Amino acid sequence: MTLQKKLQINIVMSNYNQRSGSYSSSYDYILLDSLADSSYSNLFRSDLKNLKIKTTNNTECRVLYIPSYGSQPAAILVRIPVSQISQTTKLLLDVHDTSTTFSSNLTTGNDVLMFDANNDTYSNFFMNYSGLSINNDSTDGGRFLRARFVPSLDGSSPTSLFTNFASGGSLSDGRVTVARFKRIAGNVSVNDNATYHGTTTGSVMMQTDYTLTIYQEDIKSTILNLGGTDKSYCMFNGQATLTLASSFDAYESGSDDEGDYKKYHIHGRIATGTSNTADYIEGFNRNNPTKIYDNNYAEVEISPEWYLTTDFEEYNYVDLKWLLIFPSPLFAVNGIPAITVTERTKTGIRLYKGSHEYTKAYRGSTLMWDAEDEDMEDTGLHIPDKIINKNWDWVF
């Protein structure tokens, strides 16, 4: 096991907001699905399992390695201490030789939930109905779960893929749902806060792909419920990975005849990836007046809907490889991340106060310290106690 290179992951969030007190967790999570596109990817194993991720103080982050599938690259889910997150979050990337194989040390089943068709029994994770079936997968030699729309006129069974393991997470933590499909196409909706025979507040996307026969107008669009925003080109088709994020930030609470309630700022996003370079649409309700009495998330629903033809053979099913659910406001209330990998060749002392970085120090008009200097020689600046003791942080 030989350390080949030390790199740096830069996560910049252009519309970053400092998390509020309603977020109580000590950690956030981010799905790094852009590492395979890095200019350093020739150093990475195809499954990324020669990579270790650390914080800037060299604390190793727990990770979940997610293998590639078809056209979808390998990814890493990373758990990051809240104290390490800012508008310009930096993580260290240790690259070992490609003969090294690390295994995941982030386990699922607590605040990270996952269904994997290759290994899991779907009846333990989803409401069972006649439209579900496990099928052999020629792409990876594993399996996939097919969810087919089967009408239930009496309402006695679900008509879509409906989880039974995702309820109970706090709305204030936010929710990110990542679904990787063997096949997704046509008309489908996804709700990250669904109740069977009920309505909820959350991120709901609706994808439509059909022809209006009266006007012979082709409609291909994906719509997000928040603000009614839509994009005609942000479509999910074939082997694809869908990212759906919600953040709830309580700005008011109270009680009335119906019980205790909260009002939330709500931010939703759907995307073909996690970075701001991916196709995405988003919506934001700043002062949502709705009183929400249930302060926990419900289930995740993936609904194949309608039909391409009267033979019902195409648009009424989706094939699911895995479903990952984790709490994180990084994708929503804390901004859309732009993720890059760079060399970590420059070292030295930088001063931080809050989220602001001071890379240079002057005495009068003389530059005494430049954190971008290559050699980092002592230029004569020695920080006095009266500065150190004012809640500044030393960052190496």
Keywords:
396 residues; mainly beta; 8-stranded antiparallel beta sheet; 6-stranded antiparallel beta sheet; 26 strands; globular
What this model shows, in words?
The structure is a single chain. With 396 residues, this protein is mainly β. The protein is 1% helix and 44% strand. The strands form 6 sheets. Strands 7, 8, 9, 11, 16, 17, 18 and 20 form an 8-stranded antiparallel sheet that branches. Strand 8 and strand 9 form a beta hairpin. The longest helix is centred in the C-terminal third of the chain and has 4 residues, at 385-388. The protein is globular, with a radius of gyration of 23 Å.
Tell me the number of helical segments per DSSP (H or I, 4 or more residues long).
1
Given helix and strand content, the structural type is mainly beta
Range of strand content: 35-45%
Shape designation: globular
Quick one: biggest sheet?
Answer: 8 strands, antiparallel
Strands, total number: 26
Q: What is the radius of gyration computed over CA atoms, rounded to a whole number of angstroms? A: 23 Å
Would you tell me the overall average pLDDT? 84
Order of helices and strands: EEEEEEEEEEEEEEEEEEEEEEEEEHE
- End-to-end Cα distance, whole Å, is 25 Å
Give the SSE layout.
Layout (H helix, E strand, L loop, with lengths): L2 E11 L13 E6 L18 E4 L8 E4 L8 E7 L6 E9 L16 E4 L15 E5 L6 E6 L12 E2 L12 E10 L3 E7 L9 E9 L4 E8 L5 E2 L6 E19 L2 E13 L8 E6 L13 E6 L12 E10 L10 E7 L6 E4 L2 E3 L1 E4 L2 E5 L14 H4 L4 E3 L1
Antiparallel strand pairs: 1-6, 1-21, 2-5, 3-6, 4-5, 7-20, 8-9, 9-20, 10-19, 11-16, 11-20, 12-13, 12-19, 13-14, 14-15, 16-17, 17-18, 22-23, 22-26, 24-25
